[in-house]
Amino acid sequence: MATTVTSKGQVTIPKPVRDHLGIVPGSQVEFRRAPDGSVVLEKSDGTRKPSRFAKLVGIAGPGPSTDEIMAITRGD
Hints:
The protein contains 2 helices and 2 strands, in the order αββα. It has helices at residues 15-21, 66-74; strands at 29-33, 39-43. A two-stranded antiparallel sheet has the order 1-2. The protein is elongated. The relative contact order is 0.11.
């Protein structure tokens, strides 16, 4: 979906995006940079449910060290 930037730097958020995020007049939105460099628009009032993957972050533990991985791949 493309939109035009005004001379004041404003854009209209397309209706399907507003509906998806639950953005209504007066809503706060947040722009953040994703790890891949893209920019993400989010509703910032905290009503959006967390990612289904958020609860999995960090549960695998530290894992093997680089030396251990090298020993495994070398067959030591």
